[in-house]
Every structure is written in structure tokens, then in C-alpha cells.
Amino acid sequence: xxxxxxxxxxxxxxxxxxxxxxxxxxxxxxxxxxxxxxxxxxxxxxxxxxxxxxxxxxxxxxxxxxxxxxxxxxxxxxxx
Length: 80
What we know:
It contains no helices and two strands. It is an all-beta fold.
């Protein structure tokens, strides 16, 4: 695969992806074809359970290898 040209781009497409309930399984939110580049501006992740702490893993898979952006990130409960 040739490297995509990220300096002299021919087009830019905006996209918003959301999943309201990822539960306990791996969820693929973005896929990227060859010769394409995806830019992630932000990830907004919250624990809205109210009674249980939670953790999350966020990763990118490339050529069957996982590259973690966050591994076992803990969401604690906030008491008011």
C-alpha cells in the first residue's frame, strides 16, 4: 500500500460516530480503507451507571496488531 498524501489532500469529509451503549463487548466505531487517513479529534466517554465503577479499553488495530490509546482506564463514581 502506498502512503496516502496528507499534505495535498484532494478531499476532506467530516464524520461523527456515536455509540450510546458499548456494554461489555468490543465495538468497532470506525473503519478505514487503504489509502485513507482517519483523524480522531476527541473521544467522550462517561460512566452513567450511577452505582458501579467501570473501566474501558480504547485501541486501534492495524495489520492485526492492537495499539492501545487507553488500557483499563477506570471510571470512578462521583458522589454528590
